[in-house]
Structure formats: structure tokens, C-alpha cells
Specification:
Peroxisomal Thiolase, Chain A, domain 1, 11 helices, globular, about 25% strand, about 400 residues, single chain, alpha+beta, two-stranded antiparallel sheet
């Protein structure tokens, strides 16, 4: 039986960052070069982001934290906490988000309770602790102590795909398996003031968020749209190892996000998709836009622009990715699951440039092609089928 994404839920911390306000804070920091000041204005304004969420309540302009570690609203100055200080906050703030998202995913899954979960996979690249989030989820949700636990750490923006692929493999090995996947990223813990272009780009794009899913091959009551997990592929592009990276520094984790990344994706996206589409002969020579839905990780506006143009997709097909970027920013590994949830919960009427809303393959629903990009440069892809509940 095919593994199915039977539940997908998201969660965000309550503090909202308004892009224009955050831009002004970063632009007002002392010690910036003239070029750095210009880059802050350009990067923030061109990011196609209106709002983001953060686990750091003190980053709010209305904050009245007595002893702020990151941002002093009274002076308007950003601080430089150590990596340990940032990770301590991750431990405190990530745990409730893991639990919230996981509980929501479990509650939304008809026919499944805590005793049914056989595997837990947690994902994050923005902090570490042990006993880790996998342990915390098992305890908080009252799962069986014999649940198999796995944590995927420090993989970056594409990590939701290895997690879902592992979940599908567990279900293939045991048709009775119920796998809980939860990802939490607190990217804003690693913001800093700088004139470095990569650091500025990270400050303009990244945000905090969580997503959790239940994957199973069981025959379960279907009360909402689900997605069968039809195929996964991984491709390493021949260039890009130095263009996208995630390193640990003394003042937090350091993002390397070279301006050439969109060009690398433009050059290699067709080749990266080929192994995935080869799993279904009917899709090999078909126009890309014939696949109705595209759940693209919105690593940035320029990346989405390249994907849309290179694959000949319609503006409507990129709406889910652009909307998530606009309202939530880039939440690393959790982001593509936000996009996928948008697609599962909305019927946008898109038919694709070539007309048909349905193509051949497992199930009789609408096809979804999903992809994310990360350090390496790694391209992870997935083919799914959106199946609506019987009416």
C-alpha cells in the first residue's frame, strides 16, 4: 500500500515581525558600511515578504524585556549573543512548538491516537539538545515508550523531504506503521548585524515556524484532503557547494547564501526533476505545467522566479509558495510543509497551462510536484497525489 500524508498541521510563535520595521532596525545599527546600508534596504525591500514570526518576543518594537539578549528596544541596538546563549533559547522555545505542531497533527488524524504512533521523526537545523525533541514529543503526547525515535539535524531547508521519505519507507516495511514527523526551525535566533551580504540576506528572509505530519499506509477515515507519497528523489548539482552552507560560529549559526544560487537552480532544475518524473513515463515528456500543483520551497523571491520561468509554470501555480513567503518568510525545513498544507486545504481552480487538472498515476486526484533546495547544493523532490475526501 502507498504511504499517505494523512494529516499536516503548522504552528508559529506569536511575535510578528513587520518587514519594513525590521529593515529600519537593521539599517540603524552602528558600524555598517555604506554598501552594507544599501544592501539592507535592497534585500529587505525586494524579499517579497510582508510579515514573519519569531520566538524572540524582545524583537518586537513593543517589547519591554528588562534584560534583553538580542534587541534593546529603548536604544534600538541589536546585541551579539553567544552560540550557547542562542541555543539555550532554542531549547526553551523550540520544545513547545514541536509539541504544539505534533499534537495538532495527531488530533487532526481521524482513527489515530497516541497509542497508534510507531515512529517519531523530528527535524531541525537551528539548535541542538539531548534528550532531544523526539524525546520531548513522546513524553508530552503520551506516546508509547517503545516508539522508535529519529532526529534529522542540521540538514537545512530541504530536510522535510528526507523525513517524509523515511516515513514512507517505514510504512513500506510495516503497513501498520504510523509515523509522526515534526519539524521546528527558529532561524531568527541566529540574526546579527553585519555588512556581509550573506548575513544581510539571511536577516531579510529567515523566520520561525513548525510543521508536523502523520504518515501511514493504514486504511483510515478520510475527513479532509490527503496526499499519497508517490516518489522521492535526491540530486546534488555539480556546482554550488560553496554557494549555500550553514556553519556554526561563536555568535550563532552563520548562513552562506550566495547571490549565484538562483542561477545554479536555473541551470540545473530540469536535470534535478528528471529522475523524479522518470518514475512515471506519462510525465517524462509532458509539459511541466500539466502537473497541477507545485509545492516549491520559497527560499527567496528570485528562486521562485527562476523556477516559474524555467519550467514554464503559470503564475497561479506559484501562488502557494509566494503566499507562504509573503506571510511567513523562509522557515527553513518547515516552509515547504506550509506550502503543501496550503495546497491541500485550497481548491484554487488551477488547471495548468496544458489544460488537464488530472494526470495518470496513483489515485485519481490532482498531482503535486514538490521541491526544496539546501546546502550542497542539494535538490530534493517529491511527487504526490492530492486526494479529496469522498463527498
Amino acid at each position: 500500500m502507498t504511504a499517505t500524508l494523512v494529516s499536516l498541521q503548522t504552528a508559529v510563535p506569536p511575535t510578528i515581525l513587520v518587514q519594513s520595521q525590521v529593515r529600519d532596525v537593521f539599517a540603524a545599527q552602528p558600524g555598517l558600511t555604506r554598501l552594507g546600508s544599501r544592501l539592507i534596504q535592497t534585500c529587505f525591500d525586494s524579499a517579497a515578504i510582508d510579515t514573519r514570526h519569531t520566538a524572540l518576543a524582545e524583537l518586537s518594537l513593543d517589547s519591554e524585556v528588562a534584560d534583553p539578549a538580542f534587541y534593546d528596544a529603548a536604544s534600538g541596538l541589536l546585541a551579539s549573543p553567544t552560540t550557547k546563549d542562542r541555543n539555550d533559547i532554542f531549547v526553551r522555545e523550540a520544545t513547545p512548538l514541536f509539541v504544539e505542531a505534533a499534537q495538532k497533527a495527531l488530533d487532526a488524524c481521524a482513527g489515530i491516537g497516541p497509542a497508534d504512533v510507531t515512529h517519531v521523526i523530528t527535524v531541525s537545523c537551528t539548535g541542538f539538545f539531548n534528550p532531544g525533541p523526539d524525546y520531548k514529543v513522546v513524553r508530552a503526547l503520551g506516546l508509547k515508550p517503545s516508539v522508535q525515535r529519529y532526529h534529522l539535524g542540521f540538514m537545512g531547508c530541504y530536510a522535510a523531504f528526507p523525513a517524509l521519505r523515511a516515513a514512507a519507507a517505514f510504512c513500506a516495511a510495516d503497513p501498520a506503521a504510523v509515523v509522526l514527523v515534526a519539524t521546528v526551525e527558529l532561524c531568527t535566533l541566529h540574526v546579527r548585524t553585519s555588512s556581509d551580504p550573506d548575513t544581510i540576506m539571511g536577516s531579510a528572509l529567515f523566520a520561525d515556524g513548525a510543521a508536523a505530519a502523520i504518515v501511514s499506509a493504514r486504511d483510515l477515515p478520510q475527513t479532509h484532503a490527503v496526499a499519497t507519497l508517490d516518489a522521492f528523489e535526491t540530486v546534488l548539482t555539480p556546482v554550488g557547494e560553496d554557494a549555500m552552507a550553514w556553519n556554526i560560529g561563536d555568535q550563532g549559526f552563520e548562513m552562506v547564501l550566495g547571490s549565484y544560487v538562483p542561477h545554479i537552480i536555473d541551470d540545473h532544475i530540469v536535470g534535478a526533476l528528471a529522475p523524479l518524473l522518470a518514475t512515471e513515463p506519462a510525465l517524462v515528456d509532458a509539459p511541466y505545467a500539466q502537473i497541477r500543483h507545485w509545492a516549491i520551497h520559497p527560499g527567496g523571491r528570485s528562486i521562485l522566479d527562476k523556477v516559474e520561468a524555467k519550467l514554464g509554470l503559470t503564475e497561479d501555480q506559484l501562488v502557494p509558495a509566494r503566499e507562504i513567503l509573503r506571510t511567513y518568510g523562509n522557515m527553513s525545513s518547515a516552509t515547504v510543509l506550509f506550502v503543501l498544507k496550503h495546497i491541500l486545504e485550497n481548491d484554487d481552480g488551477t488547471t495548468g497551462a496544458s489544460g488537464p487538472a488530472h494526470t495518470s498515476g496513483p489515485g485519481a486526484g490532482e498531482r503535486i510536484c514538490s521541491m526544496a533546495f539546501g546546502p550542497g547544493l542539494t535538490v530534493e523532490t517529491a511527487l504526490m497525489t492530492k486526494v479529496a475526501p469522498a463527498r
